[in-house]
Amino acid sequence: MKHEDKPLIIAGKQYASRLLVGSGKYRDLEQTREATEAAGAEIITVAIRRVNIGQDPNEPSLLDVVPPSRYTILPNTAGCYTAKDAVYTLQLARELLGGHKLVKLEVLGDEKTLFPNMPETIAAAETLVRDGFDVMVYCSDDPIQARILAQIGCVAVMPLASLIGSGMGILNPWNLSLIIEQATVPVLVDAGVGTASDAAIAMELGCDGVLMNSAIALARDPVRMARAMRLAVEAGREAFLAGRMARRFAASPSSPMAGRVA
């Protein structure tokens, strides 16, 4: 099946890159810059509670190497376990970034799995949307929950492929396919990607993009892995648009026997 190529548009802005990357876990800010450039990413997610973007004027700022003039900074609520904390964190980010509206919401359920707490996530999403934020939201791979978040007004849903930082890849492609099939907003895989083939599979399923951090930052060579992830996302998107061949239960020769010269 061949699919129509539609641009990635989030909150009214079009992006050429479908690979979104995080900014944590790197050796230093210089490596962060190099990997971000190698990934070709345009949207960079920033954990407000862990990364300095101006909160501490006496420390180096991430914005020195990933400037808002070049990248879309996506503040996130990593480390928040209640809707109240998540909302407060993003309100702080809006002040630090001069009224910035595009944010990534995640409300975690526990420290062991980092699985999303969906009731708290939905409550926070409702508050943030009413407050004028453009909310991209980390969620479980539950099609019903994803639909509810889109109906609330979130500008993108971001189901996990597997646990945050696990590198286990896509464990339930069927649920992701159901989410994509019903989607009215962009669907981006968030969490669990471990290597380039995981990113390619996500894109082949029809995801609009992939967000990752650990898979790049914790690789032996983060800059080279960032480049591999960029190529994988591009290849997966091309394969999705082209439409894979039908699966068969018998061989089909590449060189047909009919019409051959005896």
TrEMBL record:
EC numbers, comma separated: 2.8.1.10
Catalysed transformations (reactions): [ThiS sulfur-carrier protein]-C-terminal-Gly-aminoethanethioate + 2-iminoacetate + 1-deoxy-D-xylulose 5-phosphate = [ThiS sulfur-carrier protein]-C-terminal Gly-Gly + 2-[(2R,5Z)-2-carboxy-4-methylthiazol-5(2H)-ylidene]ethyl phosphate + 2 H2O + H(+)
Record keyword Transmembrane present: no
InterPro entries in the record: Aldolase_TIM (IPR013785), Thiazole_synthase_ThiG (IPR033983), ThiG (IPR008867)
Function (record text): Catalyzes the rearrangement of 1-deoxy-D-xylulose 5-phosphate (DXP) to produce the thiazole phosphate moiety of thiamine. Sulfur is provided by the thiocarboxylate moiety of the carrier protein ThiS. In vitro, sulfur can be provided by H(2)S.
Assembly: Homotetramer. Forms heterodimers with either ThiH or ThiS.
Entry binding sites for 1-deoxy-D-xylulose 5-phosphate: 165, 191-192, 213-214
Domain Thiazole synthase ThiG: 10-256
Family under the similarity heading: Belongs to the ThiG family.
One Pfam entry name: ThiG
PANTHER family according to UniProt: THIAZOLE SYNTHASE (PTHR34266:SF2)
Chief localisation class: cytoplasm
Location of this chain's protein in the cell: Cytoplasm
Keywords: Cytoplasm, Schiff base, Thiamine biosynthesis, Transferase
Name the UniProt record assigns to this protein: Thiazole synthase
